[in-house]
Write a structure and sequence with these properties.
Elements lengths: L3 H15 L1 H4 L5 H10 L11 E8 L5 E9 L10 E7 L13 H11 L2 E6 L10 H15 L6 E11 L1 H16 L6 E5 L23 H12 L23 E8 L3 H13 L4 E10 L10 H18 L7
Parallel strand pairs: 3-4, 3-5, 5-6, 6-7, 7-8
Antiparallel strand pairs: 1-2, 2-4
Helix pairs in contact: 1-3, 4-9, 5-6
């Protein structure tokens, strides 16, 4: 495996090259996507039992997002079925796709013994807010409706995501609570974007040079919400929502990530509302590190921890912070 500093420099170099047009004010989402995709490292082999891809209905009943479904090698089953984890990828609501987080979803499927449903939600700026939320909600309802067909246990439905995907997972947990269904058993938020006002992240001292800058964050927010969009909408900034009655949570942060403080503040607000919430901050963890488990020891540790915490939580075992 690669040491943290070497990997940090490599990631910063890839991001700087992909995002160079952002800093000149000429950022084009299509070009940034292509540049970032071309720089991806090939993942190590990680077989699962099988993979299916499907198109599902959208929020208006027409064509919706595609989903990729991972079936684990060793299901953590009961008489009622296996856990089902709905995963929303990161990428600032602008970048990434099913392929960028394929390795991550394979690890979660095998590590938890769960069926993982990865959602290819619509991206900004072509489809600005709230398109991603609408697709995430449509996918969640579809999974809940078809959980038996997937071999899943309806009492062990999990939402999870990293960065922008962590935002969507947190928002979906709130929407499910407000609607009374579907029942979400647990949420995993990996360095989530929870405050689009950028009150803490913009001035954070936790930042790996070049990996995720204030300029990058501003660009992503403007692509998603528009330059004059409402940063206080709870569906964009879930930290401004109500926390009572939310499912238990585990939150992953990194000590070199400018989103570290807002993720940990989100956990504090959950606890203040009486919601069980654990937080793990990883030394040397820069933004995006969780998706580098094939190459970075801290990322492998974070993946292992998430899987262990989920296995215990879904079996009803107590969690320690």
């Amino acid at each position: 495996m690669t040491d943290t500093r070497t990997m940090q420099r490599e990631v910063a170099g890839r991001m700087s090259a992909a995002f160079s047009s952002i800093l000149t004010g000429k950022g084009n989402a299509v070009e940034v996507r292509a540049s970032l995709k071309a720089s991806r490292r090939p993942p190590l082999p990680n077989p699962v039992a099988r993979i299916e891809e499907r198109g599902i209905p959208g929020p208006d009943g027409g064509d919706g997002p595609r989903v990729r479904i991972y079936f684990p090698l060793e299901p953590d089953g009961s008489a009622d079925g296996v856990p089902v984890l709905i995963y929303f990828h990161g990428g600032g609501f602008v970048l990434c796709d099913l392929d960028s987080h394929d390795s991550c979803c394979r690890k979660l499927a095998n590590g938890v013994g769960a069926v993982v449903v990865s959602v290819d939600y619509r991206l900004a700026p072509e489809f600005p807010f709230p398109a991603a939320v609408e697709d995430a909600w449509a996918a969640t309802k579809w999974v809940a409706h078809h959980v038996g067909d997937l071999g899943g246990d309806p009492a062990r439905l999990v939402v999870a995501g990293d960065s922008a995907g962590g935002n969507l997972a947190a928002v979906i947990a709130m929407m499910a609570r407000d609607c009374g269904a579907p029942s979400i058993a647990f949420q995993v938020l990996i360095y989530p974007v929870v405050d689009q006002r950028r009150k803490t992240s913009a001035k954070s001292r936790h930042a790996a040079k070049g990996v995720l800058t204030a300029e990058h964050m501003q660009w992503f927010t403007e692509q998603y919400l528009g330059k004059d969009g409402d940063r206080t909408n709870v569906l964009a900034s879930p930290i401004l929502g109500e926390f009572d009655g939310l499912p238990p949570a585990h939150i992953v942060t990194g000590d070199l990530d400018p989103l570290c403080e807002e993720g940990e503040e989100f956990a504090q607000r959950l606890r203040a509302a009486g919601v069980p919430a654990t937080v793990r901050r990883y030394e040397g963890g820069f933004h995006g590190f969780f998706n580098l488990a094939d190459h970075l020891p801290a990322a492998q540790k974070a993946n292992d921890d998430v899987c262990a915490i989920l296995r215990d939580a879904l079996r009803g075992e107590p969690q320690c912070n």
